[in-house]
Amino acid sequence: MKTKNLQKVNERVATTLMESIGEKQIYYQYETDNNNKTPQMVNFSTQLKDGKTLSGSYSKGGGLSLNGTGVNSVEDLQVVNAALDTILEIINGFEVEKKEAEDDNNK
Questions:
Q1: What per-residue confidence (pLDDT) applies to 97?
Q2: Is the pLDDT at 76 greater than 70, yes or no?
Q3: Is the pLDDT of residue 107 over 60?
Q4: What is the CA radius of gyration of the chain?
Q5: Backbone angles phi, psi at 98, to 5 degrees
Q6: How many domains does the chain have?
C-alpha cells in the first residue's frame, strides 16, 4: 500500500459549555484552532418547558440566526438575551471557569 505524504496545516478543537440560568440550561458550542484562539462563531441551544426549543448562532462579524419551536412569550425570548450576553463574552475571549471541573477530578 502506498503511503501518502500528508502535512497537517491546522488543528481544530471543539468546546461545549453549559450555563444554568434558573431551571434552564443553555449549551454553547464553538471551535478554535491554531490560527484563531478565540472563536469566530458560537452556536447555542436550549430546551424550554413544554418542549419549546430555542437555538441559534452568532458570528464575530455580527451575523445572528435564531430558530425556535413553540416560542410564544416574552419569557421564552429572555433566554436569547442571556445567551447573547454569554456569547459576546466567549467571542471576546473570556476565561472558562475550570476550577469546578478540576475540583471534581481531584475527588
A1: 56
A2: yes
A3: no
A4: 17
A5: -105, -10
A6: 1
- pTM for the model stands at 0.77
104 SS3 class: helix
Q: Does residue 7 lie within any of the structural domains? A: no
Q: Which three cell numbers stand for residue 35?
A: 490560527
| Per-residue confidence band for 103, with pLDDT thresholds at 50, 70 and 90 | low
Roughly how many angstroms between the first and final C-alpha of the chain, as a whole number? 48
Query: Residues 96-100: contacts with CB within 8 Å, 24+ apart?
Result: 96/15, 96/17
Residue 62 lies in a domain: yes
The answer to whether residues 27 and 44 touch, using CB atoms and an 8 Å cutoff, is yes
Amino acid at 105: N
Question: Is residue 82 classed exposed, middle or buried when 0-12, 13-18 and 19+ CB atoms within 10 A define those classes?
Answer: middle
Flag whether 75 is in a domain.
yes
For residues 75 and 57, the answer to whether their CB atoms sit within 8 Å is no
Spatial contact of 54 and 48, defined as CB atoms under 8 Å apart: yes
